[in-house]
Amino acid sequence: xxxxxxxxxxxxxxxxxxxxxxxxxxxxxxxxxxxxxxxxxxxxxxxxxxxxxxxxxxxxxxxxxxxxxxxxxxxxxxxxxxxxxxxxxxxxxxxxxxxxxxxxxxxxxxxxxxxxxxxxxxxxxxxxxxxxxxxxxxxxxxxxxxxxxxxxxxxxxxxxxxxxxxxxxxxxxx
Length: 174
Known about the structure:
Strand content: 15-25%
CATH class of the largest domain: Alpha Beta
Number of domains: 2
Number of strands: 7
CATH topology of the largest domain: Nonspecific Lipid-transfer Protein, Chain A
Number of helices: 6
Largest sheet: 5 strands, mixed
Distance between the termini: 45 Å
Shape: globular
CATH architecture of the largest domain: 2-Layer Sandwich
Low-confidence stretches: 161-174
């Protein structure tokens, strides 16, 4: 399923999928979608850093980004000061998440419940509904504020039928 080759850059190895490994891609994506769809968000699952990281590395809609760098500061309610703030620099292929102030002027300020951001990413709530419920707040130029949620392709689970899972009905067995 996996084979290695020497790392041309020096130490270590590079890992590559065999054809059989590549063939598992759709199966693994389907399992990931299933897991995201049915995960119950307990307090230990509310890692906003994971969502911001996956937004930039996996779900970033680069084709929708403006043609200039945009810096967004995220502040999360209910976290210690140290873990409550992060920045995303939206800049095409150079987009990244920063845990410390990146040194650029901030274009948008987002305040959010971590759960609201995660539920939005999973497709369980719409961005506009989170705004209306005051679970996410955005300050800055209205054109950028409206565009921000379109820069995320969302999780594949968001596109699954009924992306908002319900607790299964209890079935009596006799």
